[in-house]
Design goal:
The structure is a single chain. By secondary structure, this protein is of the alpha/beta class. It folds into 2 domains: 276 residues, FAD/NAD(P)-binding domain (3-Layer(bba) Sandwich), CATH 3.50.50; 151 residues, Elongation Factor Tu (Ef-tu), domain 3 (Beta Barrel), CATH 2.40.30. Helix content is 32%, strand content 15%. Helix 2 runs parallel beside helix 13. The structure holds flavin-adenine dinucleotide.
Amino acid sequence: MKKVRVIGAGLAGSEAAIYLAKNSIDVELIEMRPKYTTGAHKTELPAEFVCSNSLGSMDLLNSSGLLKKEAQMLGSILIEQAVINSVPAGNSLAVDRTGFSKAIDEIIKNHPNITLINEKYDEIDFNVPTIIATGPLTDEKLCKNIKEVFSEEDFHFYDAIAPIVEKSSINFEKAFYASRWDKGEADFINCPMNEEEYKNFYNILINAKRAPLKDFEAKYFEGCMPIEVMASRGIDTLRFGPMKPVGLFDKRIETSFKKNQFWAVVQLRQDDKIADFYNLVGFQTNLVWSEQKKLIQSIPGLENAIITRYGVMHANTFINSPKILNKHLQSKKYPNIFFAGQLTGVEGYVESIATGLFAAINIKKYINDTPMITLSNSTMLGALIDYITFDNHKNFEPQNSNWGILKEIQLDKKQMKDKKLKNTIKKDRALKEIENITKEI
Ligand SMILES: Cc1cc2nc3c(=O)[nH]c(=O)nc-3n(C[C@H](O)[C@H](O)[C@H](O)COP(=O)(O)OP(=O)(O)OC[C@H]3O[C@@H](n4cnc5c(N)ncnc54)[C@H](O)[C@@H]3O)c2cc1C
């Protein structure tokens, strides 16, 4: 049986290992946890969601929804398991993180074609076909080795994690269940604020002490900006961002939406299947823990909140993919070596899973001496890969799925203004291409 080595049993690595094993390839899966830690992972389990438990919208007219659908059609086991282990979250796919990782753990441990080795991988072996999927928190020694062999500089930015609280400690005299615009089930817990409460919260936030960042100047990914950084952009930034009150009302008080009912609202999303824990939506933070407690307990409804996980911030490493990789996610210089996941410069859970699957499909073709697949930038996954391997960027920055990276379509001026129509046509075009490619796989 042919053999592939997969480094890292995170989201991309687990997806890749399971795909290859299911396709009769002998997989050596090397994962450094639990012997060594990344600082952000909390369990010994594979495919751990380090922060939010949300995989974004399920709506196919949403870029993340389209990417998930493409990955599903290509045979993603992780997306399948995410759906099986989902928890209520309106139109989004949110996951019971422990249930999900345990399911992946069982698949990996029970598959006869996978050998799991809990060791740290420090140096690339160019003789073995390998997928490197060690993520944004790749261990230092391997980072050093990658830099040396590919003659590259450091690439990194910062990402933050949001806190989680115990539901039993939430005061439901103030907090209420609702979904925005009353769509679907009332899955979110909402903590409303009036103007005075918001100002008090804001003052605590902007005066709170931040944990020191390490060696380099802070550079954040816009989609995962800490609340204290957002708040420093102006008093209303949070009110028009993660704390926006529009479309939310407390049915115990009002019978319908009322303009300006609340000045701001903190939303909490279910974090586990039995709904014991809730995470604060958009509240990724790097404040020192005592200040986080003070801030969270200043939120109406969370006065006595028991915090089971505090927010933390981490450097997030990625390689210079435009120089290093071709459109199969294969190293240009060392054809046995493929990369996948966030380390390639894609950003996000679904993006990491999808690139893990794509690298696995191609390494299988590569070792079998059959032509590898490419996806055009009419598909969301193809557009992402196109973006990270396009070698003419002025500044290469990580990228998540979005409509802007997809190839444009030809429509008249009036039609171009109709975003829904435009995205529907793009979505249909993408799914058609994926459907065709599944026949090739
Ligand atoms: C702090 C933080 C918060 C994030 N929050 C979100 C979020 O809320 N939503 C979102 O969509 N995305 C988020 N991301 C981005 C990204 O989606 C996740 O990091 C995702 O887990 C990346 O998947 P991956 O498979 O590339 O890496 P990972 O899932 O991190 O897997 C990499 C694995 O490799 C292992 N490993 C590392 N080095 C070695 C080595 N030398 N030898 C052996 N094993 C090794 C690690 O232990 C880990 O298990 C966050 C990232 C960070 C850093």
